[in-house]
Design a protein that fits this description.
The protein is an alpha+beta fold and about 450 residues long. It has twelve helices and twelve strands. Strand 3 and strand 4 form a beta hairpin.
């Protein structure tokens, strides 16, 4: 009990004791009326004291109960000398401010999550229980999967069984995966799913994020087709425009009653050009067919060291003719791959490396092996000028080339071969030259 209330209690207790003693003395002297009056006054003093103290305690209790119930509709005021109540009032306003801040943060987070196109679903359960419940889900999640909001996680099993089974298969631990789901009997959509597990305050939480990647895939496909159509249109126009002009000229010449030797010579030359352009167009179509009809890899256990040594030996004469220094850091490295396809990629990368160092004073082409994250990597580096930034995002496009007589399918085909092996082909510029990396399992 604080100082102010304690003082009042002591005063009224002493007053009551004095009145009781006086009443006892009056009764002893047989002054019954006086003794009764004094006794009544003593009782009234005790009652007044009790009401005063209990009233202050009830006010304090009301404030504390408001804090416990998070009901901040009261407006209590501090009173000088009432330490206990004043402490409760200070605690009340401190709790009210913290609650307001938490509420503001919650509204902010809800607004952010509700505006996101990414779906979020948070499951929760007691640490000693097995049944998961829905703790939170944002509108994005409901919109993506076209499902109603349920409080029970098990209810989603019937609505979206494939999604439910995928989450179950992760054992509600950290994971990342992709899934194709057909929603409301419409076309299938691709989604990226990530789960993460955390614990706190005796509860386990599983946070699931769901993002549709179908739009990204569609945009990339559309962009790829647009780029391809531009290349094909450009190639066809370059080939067919002169052919069309030559045919028009031949038609004019053949309408002549007599052909001079010059006319005959011109016809022969025109036919040769038409034949050359036709062969060029056939080569272009065949190049496209190689990309479009890439065969499935026939994988076997191969030693990459043997493949690299064979390919490097193929270029021995070119290395000597162009005074190119070849550096290699290779060793016995075994992978499951199609040997011919891998060597085809190596041929393309080394050919590009030779072309890259043609105009440099220090001509170096290097091949080395690396191992990282359970994957085998073949690095092909050159000491050339690197790939200009303005074309770096185009080098893997079909038929894009910077060479006068280049076909423009080398890197595209190489990238397709690596992807067919569940690997990938990357490149990066260095201070001097560029590096291509073949990633294999």
């Amino acid at each position: 009990m604080k100082k102010g209330l304690r003082f009042l209690w002591i005063v009224f207790c002493l007053l009551s004791i004095v009145l009781c003693l006086a009443a006892f003395d009056a009764f002893y002297q047989q002054k019954y009326f006086t003794g009764t009056a004094l006794l009544i006054m003593a009782v009234m003093s005790l009652v007044f004291c009790w009401n005063l103290i209990s009233g202050k305690l009830r006010e304090t209790e009301k404030i504390i109960e408001s804090i416990r119930q998070k009901d901040f509709s009261l407006f209590p005021t501090e009173i000088s000398g009432e330490d206990l109540k004043n402490s409760a009032v200070k605690l009340y306003y401190q709790s009210k401010e913290e609650h307001s801040q938490l509420y503001s943060y919650k509204n902010l987070y809800d607004t952010i999550l509700n505006k996101l196109e990414i779906g979020f679903l948070i499951l929760s359960k007691k640490s000693d229980e097995n049944e998961w419940k829905v703790f939170y889900c944002n509108p994005g999640f409901l919109e993506i999967l076209k499902v109603p909001k349920y409080n029970e996680w098990s209810f989603y099993k019937e609505k979206i069984p494939k999604f439910y089974e995928l989450i179950e298969s992760t054992n509600y631990q950290d994971s990342q995966d992709f899934i194709d789901v057909s929603i409301e009997n419409r076309s299938r959509n691709s989604f990226s799913i990530r789960t993460s597990r955390m614990s706190g305050y005796g509860n386990d939480f599983c946070i699931i994020s769901l993002e549709s990647i179908q739009k990204i895939i569609d945009q990339k496909e559309k962009q790829a087709w647009n780029n391809l159509m531009k290349v094909i249109s450009h190639e066809l126009l370059n080939t067919l425009t002169p052919v069309n002009s030559l045919i028009y000229n031949l038609e004019y010449l053949t309408e002549q009653e007599e052909l001079s030797k010059d006319d005959q010579s011109e016809i022969r030359e025109s036919l040769k050009i038409i034949n050359s352009k036709s062969q060029q167009l056939l080569h272009f179509i065949d190049s496209y067919r190689q990309i479009a009809e890439l065969p499935k890899p026939q994988k076997n256990r191969i030693n990459l060291r043997n493949s690299v040594e064979r390919v490097v030996k193929m270029f021995d004469s070119e290395f000597r003719t162009n005074s190119i220094e070849v550096q290699s850091e290779i060793y016995d490295l075994y992978v499951n791959a199609d040997e011919k396809m891998i060597e085809r990629v190596l041929v393309n990368l080394i050919t590009n490396a030779i072309f890259a160092v043609e105009k440099t004073s220090e001509k170096i082409v290097s091949v080395r092996f690396l191992e990282q994250s359970g994957r085998s990597i073949i690095q092909v580096e050159d000491s050339g000028e690197g790939i200009p930034n303005e074309i770096s995002d185009k080098i893997f496009l079909p038929f894009f080339t910077t060479r006068q007589n280049g076909s423009g399918i080398g890197l595209t085909l190489a990238k397709s071969i690596m992807e067919a092996h569940n690997g990938y082909l990357t490149f990066k510029n260095r201070e001097q030259g560029s590096t291509f990396e073949m990633w294999l399992i």
